[in-house]
Amino acid sequence: MSEPITRRTFATLGAGLIMSSDTSGEQPSKKEPSKGEPKIGPTPVEAPFERDYEAPKFTPAWKKPQINRLLVQDFVIYAHTDLGMVKKLLEKEPGLINATMDWGGGDWETALGAGAHMGRRDIVEYLLEKGARMDIFCATMLGLLDAVKAFLTLQPKLIDAKGPHGFSLHFHAQLAGKDSEKMLEYLQSIKKVELKPNPFVKKDPPEKK
């Protein structure tokens, strides 16, 4: 049986492996791209696209350059594990606070989403202080039960929502520390699911004899 993924292991894995939206653990089958499809390599490739509908009447002005995609990628990756680098890059470019990375196929992730599904409360709280937009996944990981109830009252279908890489609300609830039990109890009362071991839950150190 393979060893569970640790935070250290996560930090060293390539983005293309761990950041896939497929969380089943199965390796994707290798196949040659069909005619007209882009060949996927070690760098991101934008999918081909042509409008088959009328173009919008509004034309954006593009008065400022977009934030560099590599910088966004690095910021989101560091937000999984490294508070120091998160602070450094955010000081370098404050606009990163709500920047979103598409890891492919619409697997969108912000720095806040990265810290949340890793259970990194320190990173999440720092990002919120700097103006990151709170969402239901972050609220669940922080154990903010009243906020999660408000989200689900407003939109009950959010119980089936998937965060970055397909991680569910129940997955995030397992990372809520001392509040995980009551959060899971509430979510399970709405929709009962089989809870699998969460590799990012902090393990208590063994007691000294």
Structure, explained:
- The structure is a single chain.
- The chain has helices at residues 7-12, 15-18, 69-78, 83-92, 111-117, 121-129, 136-141, 145-154, 169-173, 180-190, and strands spanning 100-102, 108-110.
- Among the domains are: 65-133; 135-196.
- It has a two-stranded antiparallel ribbon.
- Helix content is 37%, strand content 3%.
- It is an all-alpha fold and 209 residues long.
- Strand 1 (100-102) and strand 2 (108-110) form a beta hairpin.
Distance between the termini: 29 Å
Would you report the number of β strands?
2
Rg, nearest Å: 19 Å
Give the structural class: mainly alpha
Order of helices and strands: HHHHEEHHHHHH
State the helical fraction.
Answer: 25-40%
Tell me the fraction of residues in β-strands, as a range: under 5%
Mean pLDDT, all residues: 85
Largest sheet: 2 strands, antiparallel
Shape: globular
Q: Looking across the biggest beta sheet, what order are the strands in?
A: 1-2
